[in-house]
Amino acid sequence: MRDAALQIKVDSSTPAAWSNMLHCFADANIYQSWAYGATRWGAKSLSHLVITQDGEVKAMAQVRIMRPTPFKVGVAYLRWGPLFHRKGHEADGDALVSMARALREEYVVRRGLVLEIVPNAFVESARAQLFQSAFTGFEPEQASSANIYRTCVLDLAPAVEQLRANLDKKWRNQVVRSEKNGLKVIAGTSAEAYGRFCQMYREMQKRKAFASTVDVEEFGRIQESLPEKLRMQTLLCEQDGVAVAGLIASAMGDSAIYLLGATSDQGLTAKGGYLLQWTLIEWLKKSGVRWYDLGGIDPEGNPGVYHFKKGLSGAEASHIRPLVAHNDAISYALFRVIMASRSAVRSSGALHAGKALLNGLGRPVRFVEERLFGRAL
């Protein structure tokens, strides 16, 4: 791709145009949708960069802009992007190189921000190699449990019969058992279906008394904002007309990701969760989706969910480390405090270590925490 023929457009897209462009990319995902960004962070916090050549979109990136202090510092945050793999083509490494330059120029050089990129690329994959080649001027963050995404990924290329045969024996037996329990699976994208799922999720949360970082109501608002073709799929498993299990998944480009799941007490004995996952796999296969990301694993912290997901016989994988670029030492030091505060949601010790770096700032540190997290941590 010749740089001389490129056009770089910043903040000139509309929500409808952005959604239409997402359809062009095999690496599209919900985190790069306008609906997700505007609902999660607010439309005024978003920035959109698009690279075109001869009228064709070659790469695109949705970025969250955070300026949490009264000072001229801030962070540009790019999650699971940029997108550069057009459907029906090989991944365009030249487009990614051009995007890496454009991102640095716009957000680091022109706006003076720290730029953090969280690539949707798995270690040792061809896609990871493209990222590592394109972003040579960026610094990989130190790996931690807070910033490395671990998951299981199921390759849906084999025939349905082979995918079923590949299931763990105990997992496959549970599917057979669920199929004999008179369960009915309904699927859709309606607000009514999502509302039924939310009710079951809240009941499960109350029953298990667990604290969740997931806001199911927020995902409901995202669903309402997404265009119909990009909406999440809601699958509900009914027994005698009562929903006993449910899941939420997003399918864009050539991949799908499992986002949310819920099971009632009755659903545990009916094995509804197994039937839902298998039904979703069949639907994804028919829809031409190649990869199914099972939505993250934590073998040590949540072994039960880990073994459930492993039963589908997907390959364990981890994202490459986030990439950071900056031109200002003070901005970067403040960025490290922000990262320490983010990690403190899981580990309070990391926060105190981060605060020690800028102990003299006092009020700005608290201001950062309040703006980002709604409270001083």
Concise summary:
This protein is about 40% helix and about 20% strand. By secondary structure, the chain is α+β, with helices and mostly antiparallel strands.
As for the number of domains, it is 3
Major sheet summary line:
7 strands, mixed
The total count of helices amounts to 14
Oligomer: single chain
Strand percentage lies at: 15-25%
Shape: globular
Distance between the termini: 47 Å
What structural class do you assign from the helix and strand content?
alpha+beta
Topology:
Blueprint: E1 6-10, H1 15-22, H2 34-41, E2 46-53, E3 56-66, E4 75-79, H3 93-110, E5 114-118, H4 126-134, E6 139-140, E7 150-155, H5 160-166, H6 169-179, E8 184-188, H7 191-208, H8 216-225, E9 233-239, E10 242-252, E11 255-263, H9 265-270, H10 272-286, E12 291-293, H11 303-310, E13 315-318, E14 323-325, H12 329-343, H13 348-357, H14 363-373
Parallel strand pairs: 4-5, 11-12
Antiparallel strand pairs: 1-2, 2-3, 3-4, 5-14, 6-14, 7-12, 7-13, 8-9, 9-10, 10-11
Structure description:
It is a single chain. The protein has three domains: 3-148 and 319-327, Aminopeptidase (3-Layer(aba) Sandwich), CATH 3.40.630.30; 151-318, Gcn5-related N-acetyltransferase (GNAT) (Aminopeptidase, 3-Layer(aba) Sandwich); 336-377, no CATH class. The protein contains 14 helices and 14 strands. It has helices at residues 15-22, 34-41, 93-110, 126-134, 160-166, 169-179, 191-208, 216-225, 265-270, 272-286, 303-310, 329-343, 348-357, 363-373; strands at residues 6-10, 46-53, 56-66, 75-79, 114-118, 139-140, 150-155, 184-188, 233-239, 242-252, 255-263, 291-293, 315-318, 323-325. Strands 1-2-3-4-5-14-6 form a seven-stranded mixed beta sheet, sandwiched between helices. The protein has a seven-stranded mixed beta sheet with strand order 8-9-10-11-12-7-13, with helices on both faces. A hairpin with a 2-residue loop joins strand 9 (233-239) and strand 10. Helix 6 (169-179) packs across helix 10 (272-286) and helix 12 crosses helix 14. It is globular and about 60 Å long. The chain starts with 5 loop residues before the first strand and ends with a helix.
